[in-house]
Design a protein that fits this description.
There is one protein chain. The strands form 4 sheets. An 8-stranded parallel β-sheet has the order 4-11-10-9-8-7-6-5. The radius of gyration is 20 Å and the shape is globular. By secondary structure, it is of the alpha/beta class. Strand 2 (about 60) and strand 3 form a beta hairpin. Helix 11 crosses helix 12. Helix content is about 35%, strand content about 10%. It has helices at about 5-15, 15-25, 30-40, 85-95, 110-120, 140-155, 170-175, 210-220, 235-240, 265-275, 290-300, 310-340; strands at about 45, 60, 65, 70-75, 100-105, 130-135, 160, 225-230, 245-250, 280-285, 305, 355, 355-360, 360.
Amino acid sequence: MFSARDFETAARDRLDPVHADFVAGGARDEITVRANEEAYTRLRLLPRVLRGRAVPDLDVTLFGGRARTPVLLSPTAFHRLVDPEGELATARAAAAAGAIMIASMASTVAVGEVAAAARAAAAPGETVPLWFQLYLQPDPGITEALVRRAVDAGCTALVVTVDSPVLGASERNRRNGFHDLPPGLRCENLVDLRDGERGHVRQIEMSPEFSWDHITRLREITGLPILLKGVLHPEDARLAVRHGVAGLLVSNHGGRQLDTVPATLEVLPEIVAAVAGRIPVLLDGGIRRGTDAVKALALGARAVGIGRPVMWALAADGEKGVRRLLELLREEIEDALALCGAAGLDELTPDLVRPAWSGRHFGGAGVGGAGVGGAGVGGTAFGEAGLGGGAS
């Protein structure tokens, strides 16, 4: 395998086409699915030269935990649908690479087992953070039980998906009649959540009634840092800061919720400007190359997440596939950093990114006019500033 895309080709040869469609698909016409990847093709890197830099440093520290790569594994559901070991294999690969994994609430392996697998595979003396993705549930007792499980497993942050008041409509899944896991698989984090429910698997409940008050209540029951996943509007980013949220993961659920929303890269500069450095901003959606990651990091993301590539790599070659994927992306990021003249992630700045040239215009708008995402290009600046949890 030589690129992230190679894993998809190999995975499709092994997977049931219905399951491959589940991984690949998005909502409605899948416009946002395509937009997430296409956004990176509309930006160019503008490297610096003769800067006398050593081998780039890719370490990133978030919420007191340290990772050896700025690429994290965004939450994706049902890993055992594509590999018998499922999330256990994914966790081992992530830990070996020193990458943060966000365990999905809809995991086919319980979060405690995922955490144990990650700890066993980590380098001697290394503790790689494991985060837990959470959908708030209408029954507060169920939400609290899920939080306790995450805490007991040793998770160090909660990633609350907030872009799902209802379930997105996947026409691929409807046409294929794919509405549930095959026999023998279940969402293990949703089993035995209440006394007297031994063996009972609860369904994830969506609700349009959730509000900022629910985030306040969540903060009252846990001391874990809370990140919101799915914020795309800058005003919501400002509200998140005011409500004590610890971080944001800019995400459109891999195009699986509301179709035709912007690519995450398009809104990133506005979100970064809105939080004004008060909390870290992360991003997922469409990352397929190291240069994609570098563009997002230069525009203000502290780290970037991958979703679908992990599922394809897992399906193609299990744990080894995911390890190889993370190695490839690390190599590509190191290469891009060196060629950009940057010694570390902190030297990736917006002046290294340009909209693609289009005749006498940048990105279809004049220099200093309205650029990608509706923000001014202004010479050197770009703009003003999952699958059961999201696939990116």
